[in-house]
Task: structure prediction
Amino acid sequence: TALMMEGLLSACYHVCPNYTNFQFDTSFMYMIAGLCMLKLYQKRHPDINASAYTAYASLAAVIFFSVLGVVFGKDNLVFWIVFSIIHVVATLLLSTQLYYMGRWKLDTGIFRRIIYVVYTDCIRQCSGPTYVDRMVLLVMGNIVNWSLATYGLIMRPSDFASYLLAIGICNLLLYFAFYIIMKLRSGERVKLIPLMCILFTAVVWGFALFFFFQGLSTWEKTPAESREHNRDCILLDFFDHHDVWHFLSSTALFGSFLILLTLDNDLDTVQRDKICVF
Result:
């Protein structure tokens, strides 16, 4: 559904591309990125995965902030300060939830518990993390998200929708890489079909991004100025670079979903209680 709605809203955006309605083109990209991360997490944690209500409420909050960023985010220091604080705090809370695998409740006492754990495990008696692999992922995730938050606060990019999309894509790629590494470290293997899907999708995404960054148009200028960036059609004397981007990116999205569908094919005959949790 998210993929179909992305196609519909992308078509709406391309009728009249401009800064205001670019959010239509990215709204369901947030949904796709968020749902892909949830699907990966659900594969190993079906009992503690977020409910549909929580998941879609969180995605609705992301889209809400996207609208606020488009409307109020241009050179508005107050908005960027508030958004960066929320971004960092949300990253810390989610990291705590992931590390303890749902055993910590996200309530008003969570900050007191975090301070207590830091004091007992890091100050009074220094001890290593119980789940080293999970800690490495969360440290890397926090570094990436804090860096993005700092970049947004300092640079205050004018295209807030793309900035928010970059946050979602970076987190999705980070978690996907962690999932593959932990799968191999746990003695599991990636079978031929998912491996071919991964390689095929990576190559197609690479070509798609090449055509995307050709810069044949821009909604930051007037239509007459934007047309100055146009080039001759390269496919069938009808489609230009941006059209090829859409063809390739839709194919790559389909391949991405095939990866999620087939990634754990090697576990089809393994009992549920024998599957590694990470």
